[in-house]
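Consider today's protein:

***
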Amino acid sequence: MSERQSQRQRNTTETDISIALEVDGDGRSEVSTGLPFFDHMLAQLARHGGWSLTVSARGDLDVDAHHTVEDTGILLGQCFGEALGEKRGVRRFASAAVPLDEALVEVALDLSGRPFLHYDVDPPGEKILGDPPFDPQLAEEFWRAFVVAAGITLHLVLVRGRNTHHILESSFKSAARSLRDAVRLEGGDVPSTKGTL
C-alpha cells in the first residue's frame, strides 16, 4: 500500500461523508453520493488520476445538492493535501487538455500551497438528467472547495463544447490527468525556492 494516502470523515447537520484516498492507486473507485452524475465524475478523477478512491456521502438532497457536492470537495481536498504531506519530490506543475467528442477543457495547476481557482467553464446550462438531475454550476463549487482545502492553484478553461455532459467530463478528466502528472515523484526535495509548499 502506498504511503501517500489519507482517510477522513466530515459530519455536519447537512452532510455525513467519509473518504479514503490513495494517490498512488490503481484507478479503482467506489463512490456513492446520491448524485449519479457526480459519482461518475468522481470515478473519472480516480481512474484518470491513478487514485484508489472510496467516497460515501449522505446529504440533504431534499434541500439541494449543493451541500453534498461542496462538502465532498472539501473533504477530498483535505485528503489529497494530507496524502501529499510536504510534497517532497513532486513535479508540482502540470497541465492537460483531454477531449470528449466536441468538448475540450484545458487545465493547468500548481501544488502551490496557495489556494486559487480560475473557472472559465460555462456549459449551455441545462441540468444533466438523472435521479436527481445534476446542476452543472455545482462543478465549480466542487473545484473551489477542493482547491481551498488542498491548497492548490487550479485553472480550468473551456476551449469549445456544446454538450454539457461532455464539457464537464472533459474538465474532470483534464484535471485528473494534471493531478496525476503534478504528484509524480522526480526527486526528494520540495520543488520551491522557499523550501516549502
Notes: Helices lie at 36-49, 66-84, 137-150, 164-182. Residues 100 and 170 are 6 Å apart (CA to CA). The mean pLDDT is 96. The beta strands are 5-11, 15-22, 29-32, 52-59, 93-100, 103-110, 116-120, 153-160.
